[in-house]
Structure formats: structure tokens, C-alpha cells
Design a protein that fits this description.
The protein is mostly helical. Helices cover about 75% and strands about 0% of the residues. The longest helix is centred in the first third of the chain and has 20 residues. The mean pLDDT is about 85.
Length: about 80
């Protein structure tokens, strides 16, 4: 909880950047990147309170846990 204020400040800063980008009627790529940043913030919000056991629990047999899914996603992003 001690980093909550700092984390929220970072989110607000990112929201301001996204809002500025969305107001700017630049290229399609710029708008897509702005929307991707919003989605990233939403995902962080969903994951922030999860415990280790929840992150590592697969929803069903043979499916990936949230941690495995995120590791895959980050790996794909880094490969680009």
C-alpha cells in the first residue's frame, strides 16, 4: 500500500499522455499506440491485487495461468 500513491501518480501521468494523444488528430499509428497504453493501464489495474497463488492457478486443465499468459505476452512484445 505504501507505493499506492506513487503508482496512482504514474497512472494519472499516463492518462494525461493518452488523453493528449487522443486529442491530437495525428496518424493512425499514434492513435493506436494511445489506445494500447490505455489497455496496458487497465491490465495493470486488473493484476495489481492478485496473490501469488491466483497468478499461478490455471483456470482449467491444460490452460495457462495468468502468470504464464503474461510471460508469453511480454516475450512476444519483446520479440518485436
Amino acid at each position: 500500500m505504501r507505493y499506492a500513491v506513487l503508482h496512482r501518480a504514474l497512472e494519472r501521468e499516463q492518462e494525461a499522455v493518452v488523453a493528449a494523444r487522443l486529442r491530437y488528430r495525428g496518424s493512425e499509428a499514434a492513435r493506436i499506440l494511445g489506445l494500447a497504453q490505455v489497455a496496458y493501464g487497465d491490465l495493470r489495474g486488473l493484476l495489481v491485487g492478485l496473490t501469488e497463488d491466483v497468478l499461478d492457478r490455471a483456470p482449467a486443465e491444460g490452460e495457462w495461468s495468468a502468470r504464464e499468459t503474461m510471460a508469453h505476452t511480454v516475450g512476444v512484445e519483446r520479440s518485436y
